[in-house]
């Protein structure tokens, strides 16, 4: 199994609030498309941060921080381009989530979005 697909499966195991989203994704996409799935992960994580759903945004951030620290290229690419880059911008609801990123994610976030 490719490392980016394993990342998705491991995330669902670590943050069970993503199970329904994962099942719908696999059904609709006829498999796992990590970058597409992570668009929804961002939306769910931000909604959770704002108090709007059952997904544990803190568990999600902890898991992604751990994964980023492993420095696996396929995993890093998904986390950086499909999660961090798609977080809210300073003028959008949920931007405060950025203040809760761990050191590895904060460094990557600052590198790809220096203006926030």
Distance between the termini: 34 Å
Shape: globular
Strand content: under 5%
Given helix and strand content, the structural type is mainly alpha
Total helical segments: 6
Overall domain count: 1
Largest sheet: none
Evaluate the radius of gyration: 13 Å
| Number of DSSP strand runs | 0
Order of SSEs:
HHHHHH
Mean pLDDT: 94
Task: Give the proportion of residues in helices.
Answer: 55-70%
What ranges have pLDDT less than 50 throughout 5 or more consecutive residues? none
Structural description of this entry:
The structure is a single chain. This protein is mostly helical. The protein has one domain (3-112). It is 63% helix and 0% strand. The longest helix has 16 residues, at 34-49. The N and C termini lie far apart (34 Å).
How are the secondary structure elements laid out?
Elements: H1 3-14, H2 19-29, H3 34-49, H4 57-69, H5 73-83, H6 103-112
Helix pairs in contact: 3-5
Summed up:
With 116 residues, the chain is an all-alpha fold. It has 6 helices and no strands.
């Amino acid at each position: 199994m490719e490392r980016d697909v394993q990342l998705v499966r491991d995330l669902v195991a670590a943050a069970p609030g993503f199970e329904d989203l994962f099942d719908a994704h696999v059904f609709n996409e006829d498999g796992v498309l990590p970058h597409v799935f992570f668009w929804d992960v961002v939306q769910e994580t931000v909604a959770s941060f704002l108090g709007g759903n059952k997904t544990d945004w803190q568990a999600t951030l902890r898991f992604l921080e751990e994964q980023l620290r492993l420095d696996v290229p396929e995993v890093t690419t998904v986390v950086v381009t499909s999660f961090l880059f798609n977080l809210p911008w300073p003028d959008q609801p949920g931007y405060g989530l950025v203040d809760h990123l761990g050191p590895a994610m904060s460094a990557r976030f600052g590198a790809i979005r220096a203006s926030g």
